[in-house]
Write the structure tokens for this entry.
Amino acid sequence: MYQKIDEIKKYIKCFNIQTYDDLETFRIKFLGKKRGILTNLFKELKEISIYKRKIYGKIINELKKEVQRKIFHYQSKNDIIKNEKGLKHDYDPTIPGKSIEIGSIHPLSIIKNRIIEIFLNIGFTYVDGPEIEDDWHNFTALNIPIHHPSRDMQDTFFLCKNPDILLRTHTSSIQIRYMKKHRPPFRVLSIGKVYRNETISSRSNFMFHQAEGFFIDKKVSFSDLKQTVHYLITSLFGKAKIRFRPSYFPFTEPSAEVDIHCNSEWLEIMGCGMVDPEVLKNVDINPEVYSGFAFGVGIERLSLMIYDMKDIRIYFNNDIRFLRQFKSEF
């Protein structure tokens, strides 16, 4: 075996490698799984004594490392040669490159970013929360009783009933999560997807984006709410006629719908109100000391009005011809 190993050493050193094919032949010749020279030598070790097996095993391992080093060396060398050839023959640096199409921001993202900017300017903090919620955060803590229609399976996407896990129907659940972990005063804005089992039409969808804001402090009044809503609408639409109509929401008292005069008609734009004392109690905030307001507005509805669009479904069709029209004008 010693004579055979000595011959293999010379063979490894003398093997001429010029191309990738030569390199592959060299690798298979010595390390091939079936007929590789070193592979067969390892198999022959089983037939000799344990003492000699240790000696020759160490020598064969060194030969294997030598083969691997030679493969790595010529592989690197040939990679350089190949790249150089590619630069000379496969690529012409004088040919103009392919232009990359510059994308545009989605109109809903434009409105979302603008709303965030508006409220950051008056001291609000932007936060986010989970889209999959439990009953307590989405309904119970917001003073929505068990018999309320929004709990019905026809309106809400329940993922399981025991416990009640669902796709959030509003971003108001973030109010509860935030107020549980923080002490007043705070001003918070959140924007995200919400889900309701509604018929898809030109004015509604089973999923839409909602912006929700709330402000909790001592002596917060309805006048503070009106001023904040007025600031939001005028920042988005400029000078506009605004009216507040009495309404009902389980989590605010009193509550109001806000309309804006647009194209010679009044259009509902958002809901708002003073945070119900029961909601504050549910998150261990004393309603005798603190008060606050909350509001919610659909981003799609705002976008339809700002861009004078007629069909909400076009926002989700991913038509590049439609999307490339939009630039952040704010």
User: Anything to note?
Assistant: The domain at 107-323 is CATH 3.30.930.10 (BirA Bifunctional Protein; domain 2).
